[in-house]
Amino acid sequence: MNPIKKLSILNLFFSVALSLSAAAQTKTGFHIIKDIPIHSSGGWDYINVDGEAKRIYTSHGNQINVLSTVTGDSIGYVPAMGVHGVALVKSLGKGYISAGRANAVVVFDLKTFNVLATIPVGQNPDAIFYDDYSKKIMTCNGRSKDATFIDPVTDKVVGTVPLGDKPETAVSDGKGKIFINGEGTSSMIVIDPIAYKEITRYKINGGEGPSGLDIDRKTNRLFLGCGDTKTMVVMDASNGKTIGTYPIGGTDGVVFDPGLKMAYASNGEGTISAIREVSADKFEFVENIVSEPSARTIGIDLVTHKLYLPAAKTEPNPNGGRPRQIPGSFHIIEVGK
Q1: Which residue, of 156, 186, 203, is where some domain finishes?
Q2: For a designed S-S bond to 97, which of 106, 138, 278, 293 qualifies (C-beta 3.0 to 4.6 A apart)?
Q3: Residue range(s) defining the domain that contains residue 286
């Protein structure tokens, strides 16, 4: 064979091999590892994973179920009416549950799971989280369209911010700003957690019906899961500018892994859309990871980088509307490499 022709073939071979290798590297390698069954009845909403303590806190009916990430075994549960989410203040050894039907937050001990207090807040508290900047618990109150702030030291309400829109989810930049999805007007509402007042708000460009939300604090980028348009909007938190929009599914949850620089949106169709952050101004859609239909919310273990999604088998509702959950089928999906 002609040496030049042979060299050309070898170059082509290596070029194809490198292309295939690069393509393989763009994928996450994530798949369903196992299912963790929970046999009690009831619907579900948010899930919170504490990677350091190796615990999963998942809302289910009128309680929070606490499970081990290692064995999947039940560690305990905490009762609360119409549970939506849970926030942890580990330095104080306390957890906080948004009890939507009770218009209250239920406080519990992280060791014994005993209920310590019940705090009245706004109407239908939904998302809840701990802001490590202001050292306050904040609830998004859907029916009263406001946000409540609680001091976890005293377990007293210390502030309420009217929002004029249904708040869906909130995150903190860790520097004095809290960002809240305004679901009704498709807006990003920015508030001050010290002064308890609105700073500004941005109209979301590229998506409607925002629900899931997370942030990369290092690059100051927000990841908005917009279920109505089935798009993830990446927003510059400093000015509300849309950096990019990416196709996802009917999502209700978004998490960001700062270690892998990956944002994930959990979609009710049975997929997890993965968006990679290449740089502060460059993002790329990676793939749709197979999960399970009904798995619309998501939690992340930032220690192991695994994802956890509540789900259940469903059947058609003879009365129409949302499919009915098949009794005894509720479980947590563990997704990772």
Answers
A1: 203
A2: 106
A3: 28-46+206-337
Can you say how many angstroms the Cα of residue 186 is from the centroid of all Cα atoms in its chain?
18
CA–CA separation, 202 and 179 (whole Å): 10
Q: Is there a contact between 65 and 72 (Cβ–Cβ < 8 Å)?
A: no
What confidence score (pLDDT) does residue 129 get? 96
181, part of any domain: yes
- Residue 32 contacts residue 19 (beta carbons within 8 Å): no
Task: Note whether 194 and 210 are same-domain residues.
Answer: no
DSSP string, 194-240: TTTEEEEEEE-SS-SSEEEEEEETTTTEEEEEETTTTEEEEEETTT-
Q: Match 């081990």 to its residue by tokens.
A: 68
* Global pTM value: 0.91
In a domain, 64, yes or no: no
State mean pLDDT over 51-62: 96
d(CA 125, CA 128): 8
Can you read off the two tokens belonging to residue 31? 């798949």
> What total number of domains does the chain contain?
2
**What is the chain's alpha carbon radius of gyration, rounded to the nearest angstrom?**
21
Antiparallel, parallel or unpaired: β 210-216 and 282-290: unpaired
Q: What CA–CA distance (Å, rounded) separates 32 from 311?
A: 13
Q: What is the pLDDT of residues 172-228, one digit of tens each?
A: 999 999 999 999 999 999 999 999 999 999 999 999 999 999 999 999 999 999 999
293 inside domain: yes
- What does pLDDT average to over the chain? 92
**β 125-131/136-141 pair status:** antiparallel
Q: What pLDDT score was predicted for residue 1? A: 55
pLDDT of the residue at 223: 98
